[in-house]
Amino acid sequence: MAVVKGPQVFPRPEYLRRLAAVKVKMAERDIEAVVITESAHITYLTGSISPPDARGLIIFESREEPVFILRWLDVALTEQETFLDRDNILAYSEEFVGGPDTNGYDAVIDFLLDQGLSKASIGLELSDLTVASFEKFKTRLPQIRIVDFSHEVERIRSIKSDLEIAVMREAAAIADAAVLRALEIMRPGVKEADAIAEIVGALARGANGKIGTWLAEPFLCASSRIGSPHTHWSEDTLQQGSQINLEIAAVRHAYHAAICRTYSLGNPSDRLLRMHAAQLAGLEAGLSVIRSGVISDEVAGVIHRTTEKYGFKKRSRCGYGLGIGWWEQATSLKIGDSTVLQPNMTFHLHLGSWIEENFGCVISESIRVTESGVELLTKAPRELFVID
Question: Do 275 and 260 lie in a common domain?
Answer without folding.
Answer: yes
